[in-house]
User: Fold this.
Amino acid sequence: MTRAGAAAFGQSLALIALAPLLAGLIKRLKATLQNRRGPDLIQPYRDLWKAMRKETVVSETASWVTLAVPYVVFGGTAAAAFLVPAALADTPLGPAGDAIALVYLLAVPRFFLALGGLDAGSAFGGMGSSREMMISSSAEPALMLALFAAALEAGTTNLGAMARRMAELGWAGFNPGLALAAAALFLVALAECGRLPVDNPATHLELTMVHEAMILEQSGRGLGLIEWAGMLKLAIFLTLLADLFLPWGAALGADWTQLGLGAALCVLKLCALAVAVALVETATAKLRLFRVPDFLGTAFVLALLALLSQGVVRIGL
Amino acid sequence: MEPILGAMAALALGALASLLLRGSPRLARLYSCGLAGAGCALLAAACAAALGGAQAAGLTWSGWFPFAALELRLTPLGALFSALVGACGLAASVHGLSYAEEYDHRAGWLGFCYCCFLPAMALVPLAANAFTFLFFWEAMTLASFFIVVLEHENPRNRQAGWLYLVMSQGATVLILLLFLRLHGACGSWSFADFRAAGPGLPSRTRDLIFLLALVGFGTKAGLAPLHLWLPQAHPAAPGHVSACMSGVMVKTGLYGFLLVVFGFLGPGPWWWGALVLAVGAASALLGVLYAVLEPDIKRLLAYSTVENVGIIFMAAAMGLIFSSFGREAAAAAALGAALYHAVNHAAFKSLLFLAAGSVAKSSGTRDLERLGGLIKAMPRTALFFLAGCLALSALPPFNGFVSEWLTFQSLLSGFGLPGTPPRILCLLAAGALALTGGVAAATAVKAFGTGFLALPRSSGAAAAREAGRPELLALAVLAAACLALGLVPGKVLGVLSGPVAGLVGFGGVPAGAASVATSGLGGCSPAILLAAAAAAAAAAWALGRRLGGPGSARRAPTWACGMPGLTPRMEYSAAAFSKPFRRVFGFLYQPRREIRPSAPAGEYFPASIAYSAGIRQLILETLYHPPARVLMRFSHAARRLQAGSINLYLGYLLVALGVLLALFLSGRLG
Assistant:
């Protein structure tokens, strides 16, 4: 394996391994912003460790679907992590999946989570599944168009090449089209990863939960894997924002200085995005469920404007 | 051509056998389904062989009808659609061996119609002149009409059949007009002459022919707003026939459209493509939005057919737009996506309809609100249905994913077109397609989640038993096909390049490795994604074992909010599942609901509560009812002429005679 290949592979593994740290960072930042002390940065690792070692209890009414869900969810999300460029503007599975494939690949875990919610027969799970599917289908157009805006900038849907283009652009990367698309993707990321103001990751209040309702009947190892996959999904979305929409960063070559610089910049951008998520989560209240489509409609319009502006700026009227 | 004739002979034998054996239903069923299966296998093999070969075999019978010859020709495009009929018909016939038991009280008639329906449908794409095309087109419509009204005791089926017949015949009139117009231009009925004459016609005639093709063939394909018959008629037929109707019959409409617009007319103005793109996007959205609300599992699948036909036409529309701008490579890629999705839809929709038929037979209901828990009683059927649902939701690594991916790629390539209007159109279409994909996944979750998971909601569902062996065999093969078509996109695109070349004169579907789909902008390989996900899942499993030991899962009751036990009434129902969609898209559904507690006012606990809910059929009420009302008023007025008195009729005769005589004497006649 060449050094570039090894670096690309390593960055995906690092993304999977460090995703809980990012979640811990956001939690800690939120606590600081709210004048609380908050848990350690590595608290998510302790939670995962605990869940992995606990006994698994499965509903009597459930079928093999409930048992398969954690593995499909983790497998699908982890495979998505191998499509995302982070420190290096390249991906280990380069031609195997582009931006559109990434969106569909991330739909697989969601599909199975929703099935798992219905499997145990409790009304909570069904409620979570139904709401999750509504939210995700409203989010999908905005997500797709936001990625299209970046793809048009690069002239390809290959994620590695898109990151490369962004890294090369430098100052020219600050254009209105990309900024609008980044805003749209940020809103979608909040919705897709179950963050405020769409879903509250910290609540178990019956009538407001979405993601937590779907996994209510999961326990032990399965719950741990699902939680990990959830953190990984957030990390994937933030990395996409960092690499496809913020200029500079991803290393173009695989020599040590470039890689080190790329990794440092990527971490810096991710920290900045974590601050943004923490600020949003502190400053906003949860939306009523039926206001969520309006929220995502805003994201869709932003993405639409982004594409229109891309069309005008790049190709002319 | 000989194998195809052999296939037709087997099917004819099946038709004959089921009529002769109608006294013993079991034999009639076995012979009709068995012979139909054999015929379809032969047909599929012959057509698949012709897909690769360049030589166009043909056949002509001129003695049968005084005014025209029956003429068949095996073109690559026709062979593709015929092969689809064969493959789908084979699966449906094997399934029918045990499934059609349910209809044994009419086995002879069902077998006869079924064995007429399949060959008619298979020969439509092979027709080489207008007469042959219309002959088999009508035979296909009539045979399927008789199957739709098979259970004519049920007034809903009669109504569905009536609507189907009226709309199909209306569409056939338009197709006939289209062929007459082309005949007027070239003086022949042969498709080869149409092909030569089409591009040279004046542009207004070409526009007219294009519109006739869109409306005429669009009705058969089920494009909105001409789709009304489809969700009524497809579910009324027995499961294995619904599978053929939804899986392949709607594709004959697609075939006709591609033949006329690409084959006869050639590149046109770009508004053709824009119109088709808008119609396709509207069909996709309307179809899926009605599907997500539907509680009847077969009708849900039928609405999803409207959605998928919309997606196919969106891809075909991109082909039209690209070819009108002279971008043949992009047009070929878009048409490749359209044909790919047509093949995929045939595979997963027939799988789902067949499985739904088995479920309905086994549990005695098609209502999702009365199903549930079938994953325990029918584990294999459930697994295959799940595979179909994954393909329907376009999730990798199943086949639906690849064709939707290719369609997105085509829409994205549309941004390279000159001028802002086509680009904005592609933009909106991409948004519509993304929304369609999201809602389609919700539909699939609802169908599988409420139909197969958790507890059974009725005694019928609780008493369900696993489907018979032939049924499971057919389902297994189709599920494997859904997976295989997704894993080797490069190979499938290579096979499709022949038919595509027949349409745009350029087969340049980009060739790559067998497991990779590529377009001008990127690539994807579901096989590698599957391998990566499987490796990650295995690593997670190993990690779990290492950290927590092999510990097996303990079983415990589902938490039922402190109530003593979980009952099916606590489960989330299908209506509840789709409730968020009903609210978010309320402008389309205009839902109404009524709650009547049956207790005197003032009491806190009513004895019972009656709840009813429904949605307005907006398209029916705004587009169909006003013209229907005008028609009814007109026919009421015309009824005065038919007063029923014989004297009046004699008077009409006298008047008519007088007018004719007057015309004759004044020299205007003769």
